[in-house]
Amino acid sequence: MSAPPVFQQALGPAWSQLGDVIRRHYTMRPFSDDYVCVRGTMSEVWHAPWAALLMPFGRLFGALVPHQGKNVPIAVHYRCHPDDAHLYWDRVFDFPGRPPFHFRSHMEHDASQGNEVIEYVRFGIGMRLAVSAEDGAVVFRDRGYIWRIAGLRIPLPLGLLLGTAYVEERPDPTDPDHFTMKMLLRHRWFGDVFRYSGRFRLGSQ
Q1: Quick one: pLDDT at residue 64?
Q2: Contact 86/106 with Cβ under 8 angstroms?
Q3: What pTM does this model have?
Q4: Gap between the Cα atoms of 181 and 133, Å rounded
Q5: Rounded CA gap, 87 and 76, in Å?
């Protein structure tokens, strides 16, 4: 019997409280070749001027979107692999006049951690995220950063520099096949560091 989707594992009974379009695009089963794609437009992709100093590190770890723009086309490819239990993301931003920019990561869930997942980018850098279902939306709240090396998870104080992340995906009440999303990195002293938001359509797969 196949395992339930990663976010269903994290949410438990609260999975049923998510809007239908949110559940439908996260139904990929671990240890499978399941695949879903959503397409949309980012109404805003923005970072604070001083955050440009972080971009070389962001490119190295594959963790930050280095460009800015409005009404940016985007496709998000979600997939599972037959040989592991993770959920893989490939966000492809199509900034005008630039090659497509890929922001790749994968998410893991450990049953011992309850509703927490970890989103990993390159070199074992991960962000711990608490997952909740709120008014039909799936919401992710930052619980800190880690570095996984040699089987250890070492806490990293990156929040002192980057701030705290908040992400949500919310059903669009005007269309059952659309949802909105937003991501915000906000520093307690410096204000917004990164943010982007958009609207997506889940088409036939």
Answers
A1: 86
A2: yes
A3: 0.93
A4: 14
A5: 12
